[in-house]
Each structure stands twice: as structure tokens, then as C-alpha cells.
Design goal:
The protein has about 220 residues and is α+β, with helices and mostly antiparallel strands. The protein has four helices and twelve strands. A four-stranded mixed sheet has the order 1-2-3-4. A four-stranded mixed sheet has the order 9-10-11-12. The chain has a two-stranded antiparallel sheet with strand order 5-8.
């Protein structure tokens, strides 16, 4: 398996590289078609983030976790991947050799942007009694509502059945997945419902109006 490890916001560590390599190599026992893996280790707001992506044929497995310790974050991320891999191991084997060959230029691509919006912050005027303070002095509202782009991901859309799209969403430990529905050929989204189960969103074109005919 080809493994790439990226460090962000802190220096590279040989011990972390070796630890991540050992953990990722474990999936070779469960995968028939282990291809390449990407590990991104980053430090954000004093938390250690581990983002691990493994490609196996046409399927993508992903685990993301954060904690106060990078070794623990790697363990938690790999636990997510192995849990889904064991769940779908038989189904993945049944798909072995059945993947369609796609030319890169023929794939539909979408862009996934993640934004962060700060909520209003109200600072009470502690030095003056509320009953005597002017309305403008009772609170100071910080500038808010401005969306800040956190990250952008470009995704190649696969043509899948709804069941396979749900499986791919679970393998990536995502809450939604964009795909081309093999049955309708429409660009569709499966998502995880808060109440349990899954939902499907796809475009629906109204029936064309019937042209009036004269006599």
C-alpha cells in the first residue's frame, strides 16, 4: 500500500509516521484491493486532528477524529474505518472486479465548500445598572454573520445504486454522499436522518404541459 503522510500546523515526527503506518497497514488484512492511503495530521485550536483516507478499488474509506493526543486521534480514526470495513467486508468482496472503468474526463465533478459563521457576541455593560444604561450602552454586538471559507473539496461523482451510495457514505463515515443514480441517471444525494435511517434527494422534473389543440 502506498502511504502519504502530511503534517499541518506542527513539525513532522518520525515516531508518528511509523505509528500511523503500522495502524494503516492493519487494514491490509481486511482488504482485497488496498491501494493508496492518505493521512493528514494537524493541530487546530489545541486539538490533535487525524484524517485518514484509504482507497480500495472504486471504494473510499475514511476516518476523522480529534483528541488531546495525536496517537489517540489516529487510533480513533482507524477504529471508525475498521468498524465500517468489517461491516461491509463481504459486500466489498462481492463487488471485486465488478467496478466499471471510468475515464477521468468522463466523471462528473462537484465542489464541496465548508463555511464557518460566527454567531453574534453580546458584551453586557457591567459598570452601569441596566435600568439606568442607555440602550446603546447596554450591549455591544460584535460583527457577525460573515461566512469564512474553511476548506474546499473537489469530488468525482460515481454512478451507483442507492444501496451502494449508502454503503459508500458509511465507509467514509459521512452524513451525506453525492452520486449519480444508476436507475434515474440523476445527480442525487443520500443523507443520514436525525430520526434514524436514510433519505434520498434527487431532482424531479414536473410533467411537461400538454399543448392545447384547436378544432
Amino acid at each position: 500500500m502506498q502511504l502519504n503522510i502530511t503534517f499541518r500546523q506542527f513539525g513532522a515526527s518520525d515516531s508518528l509516521k511509523e505509528y500511523a503506518r503500522e495502524k494503516v497497514d492493519r487494514v491490509n488484512r481486511l482488504l482485497d484491493r488496498a491501494g493508496e492511503a492518505h493521512v493528514v495530521l494537524s493541530l487546530e485550536r489545541h486539538l490533535h486532528h487525524a484524517d485518514i483516507t484509504i482507497h480500495s478499488g472504486a471504494w473510499v474509506l475514511r476516518g476523522r477524529e480529534k483528541s488531546d493526543d495525536m496517537y489517540a486521534s489516529i487510533d480513533l480514526a482507524m477504529d471508525k474505518i475498521e468498524r465500517q470495513l468489517r461491516r461491509y467486508r463481504d459486500k466489498l468482496k462481492s463487488h471485486h472486479g465488478k467496478e466499471k472503468v471510468h475515464h477521468r474526463q468522463d466523471l462528473v465533478r462537484v465542489r464541496h465548500d465548508v463555511f464557518e459563521v460566527h454567531e453574534p457576541e453580546v458584551a453586557a455593560e457591567a459598570s452601569a445598572p441596566a435600568a439606568q444604561a442607555e440602550p446603546s450602552a447596554q450591549a455591544q454586538v460584535a460583527e457577525s454573520g460573515v461566512a469564512r471559507l474553511v476548506r474546499t473539496t473537489h469530488l468525482a461523482i460515481q454512478s451507483l445504486s442507492v444501496d451502494d451510495a449508502v454503503m459508500q457514505m458509511n465507509l467514509m463515515n459521512n452524513d451525506f454522499y453525492v452520486f449519480q443514480n444508476q436507475q434515474s441517471q440523476a445527480l442525487s444525494i443520500v443523507y443520514r436522518r436525525k430520526e434514524g435511517g436514510f433519505g434520498l434527494i434527487e431532482p424531479h422534473l414536473p410533467d411537461a404541459p400538454v399543448a392545447a389543440t384547436g378544432t
